[in-house]
Amino acid sequence: MGRPKLVILRGGAACGKSTALYRLKKNKKFKDWAIIDNCSLKLQFENLGGEKMKEYGHGALFFLLKTIMSTKRNIIVDEMSEKTLRKNINYYINKYEYEIVTFQFAVSVETAIKREVHRRESVGLKSRGASWVKRLHKFHEEKIDKNGILINTDRFDKKGVEKFIIKNLKQLESHN
User: Fold this and answer.
1) The 34-36 sheet, strands edge to edge
2) Domains of the chain (ranges, CATH numbers)
3) C-beta separation of 166 from 74 below 8 A
4) Closest Cα partner for 128 from 19, 14, 9, 33?
5) pLDDT in tens, 136-154
6) How far apart are CA 174 and CA 176, in angstroms?
7) What is the pTM of this model?
8) What is d(CA 20, CA 53) in angstroms, rounded to the nearest whole number?
9) Could you tell me if 38 and 78 are in contact, meaning their C-beta atoms sit under 8 angstroms apart?
10) Cα–Cα distance, 85 to 77 (Å, whole number)
């Protein structure tokens, strides 16, 4: 069966990470996986302000990961980097022999801006604006995971992204 997997979905704003996470969560192939929406986890502490939200969100995530890892269950998490995971829970990654697989999401800034406007308006919220999207994309471009499996979501629809992830995970499993 191979080593347990810790799959990371990362990339800029409105590139499809959350959509992929929720599609995978509903897919029967992932019924035994722990799927963690890190963004929603952090939002549980939103009322405490930005720094505490991030601090407590990370603390909660690392606690959950350590607990789940002891079961050697496969895990998917978004909004996280391998570097940060290794800095905080490397002992557990090694102890339970996890293989880390990163899917690096990419999308054009123009598409991301359109998606962000549509997503926010669909729930009655005002868009954060093009400059917000551009700033986050620039941040993620500087911190790109060069070893990650690139998914250009300009080229795939939602189902295509889901199939791409499943196909790549199967290929990795067959090589182990």
Assistant:
1) 34-36, 75-78, 5-11, 99-106, 149-152
2) 5-175 (3.40.50.300)
3) no
4) 14
5) 888 878 888 888 999 999 9
6) 6
7) 0.91
8) 24
9) yes
10) 11
